[in-house]
Amino acid sequence: MAPSDRKPARWSKRTLSAQAMGKTDPITGGIVPSIHIATTYLRDPDNQYSSGFVYGRPDNQTVREAEAVIAMWEEAEAALLFSSGMAAAIAVFMALKPGDHVLAPRVMYWALRNWLLTDAQQWGLHVELVDMGDLDAVKAAVKPGKTALVWIETPSNPLWSLTDIAALAEISHAAGARLAIDSTAATPVFTQPLALGADLVMHAATKALNGHSDVVAGALATAKQDAFWRKIVAHRKSFGAILGPFEAFLLIRGMRTLDLRVRAASATALDLAKRFQKHPDIADVLYPGLLSHPGHPIAASQMKGGFGHMLSIRVRGGEASAIATAAGVMLWKRATSLGGVESLIEHRASIEGDGSPCPTDLLRLSAGIEDPEDLFQDLDQALRRAHGSVG
Ligand SMILES: *Cc1c(COP(=O)(O)O)cnc(C)c1O
Fold first, then answer.
1. Distance between CA 71 and CA 66 in Å, rounded?
2. In this structure, which CATH number among 3.90.1150.10, 4.10.320.10, 3.20.20.70, 3.90.1580.10 belongs to the domain 258-390?
3. Cβ neighbour number for residue 6 with a 10 Å cutoff
């Protein structure tokens, strides 16, 4: 089915998400469906499983309800939930065959980059890192008939570089490769990778999809339920990487407010980015919504309605000033991760460790839904104190 053939939903995505696809409890009429916790299901007297459920490792009704919301957001034929974002991402690579060639970005989510450069090689994948912003470099790196997968992340950690999804889809498909996208930072509110030609979308649902920093979860959504997708389904079943029903319930609850949260956080990120650009203690602000950001033209055409809740600042005075700034905040929470209702600040190079391409003067910011003025004031006082202009 071509992306354009998909029937538009009758209600908007914001509406469908707020009501978790309109599901209610069939027994009580409760407007919130129950959580299905059974690990095993009754077999019928005629030896069949008419309910379609057999056992909890392959499948679960509450997980299916969460998957339906994600598939709706991504305009996907199907979605699958995993016990983490990493489990979801690795499921895609494990569906490849030893010997397959894979392209991945040079700068990307650190833990997955590490896995690709270690375990993925043992599994027999030939992983090559390229600059996905350089289309000629990507064209030169794809090997027709050999490259099975091109993996991109846009905007990508922690510089928020943009990759042109439609251009990458064309290059990948011309070489017979699939295109998969880590769309965690973009969120399905602002970008629809499948509609732009991608084959698979991955989310660390731990982040904005859940949005409350209380669930670890990962999602995949597919344009087609083809043989490759069926391998991913089989992998989740054998590895037992399915999300738990309680986590799926929390995720459904988080996604009821996805649209509102993400739009508010994105507006805050843009506001902060513009104000920090003029800040005397900041050397550079990295945010795709700024005209000065190298990825802005692609972001402006590919992201609709906002540029996301993630930004980074490069602090004048180098690593020590950056760490001192993070130490001086009172409202922002000093923590890794992103996409929650509370704003987070992180000295990214410290967590990435040796070999990280992350600049040491960089602080990664995840805007939450607090009052943007409070967020500005708090970081402003931390910057000024770190630079000795106050007290
Ligand atoms: C957090 C994150 C992941 C990994 O997700 P987990 O749920 O922590 O396994 C992958 N990609 C991006 C962009 C992330 O932010």
1. 9
2. 3.90.1150.10
3. 14
Q: Decide: helix, strand or coil at residue 295.
A: coil
Q: Is the CB of 247 under 6 A from ligand 1?
A: no
Distances (CA, A) of 275 to 128, 229, 262, 282, 284: 38, 44, 20, 10, 11
Q: Is 216 in the pocket of ligand 1 (CB under 6 A)?
A: yes
What confidence tens digit (pLDDT) does each residue in 87-123 have?
Answer: 999 999 999 999 999 999 998 999 999 999 999 999 8
- Residue 108 near residue 156 (C-beta atoms within 8 A): yes
pTM to 2 decimals?
A: 0.95
Please, where in the chain does CATH 3.40.640.10 lie?
11-255
Give the residue range(s) of CATH 3.90.1150.10 domains in the chain. Answer: 258-390
Checking DSSP bridges between strand 362-366 and strand 344-347, what pairing results, if any?
A: antiparallel
Nearest-CA residue for ligand 1 atom 2 is 204
Spatial distance between the Cα atoms of 318 and 360, rounded to a whole number of angstroms:
7
Query: Whose CA is closest to atom 5 on ligand 1?
Result: 85
62 falls in which pLDDT band (50, 70, 90)? very high
Task: Write the pLDDT tens digit of every residue in 337-355.
Answer: 999 999 999 999 998 888 8
Which has the closest alpha carbon to 89: 112, 66, 114?
A: 112
The DSSP line for 304-365 is -S---SEEEEEETTHHHHHHHHHHT-SSSEE-S---SSS-EEEEHHHHH-TT--S-TTEEEE
Q: Can you name the CATH fold of 11-255? A: Aspartate Aminotransferase; domain 2 (3.40.640)
Give the Å distance between the CA of 85 and the centre of ligand 1. Answer: 5
Partners of 180 in the β-ladder: 151, 200
Angle between helices 372-386 and 318-327 (to 10 degrees): 130
Q: How many residues does the chain have?
A: 391
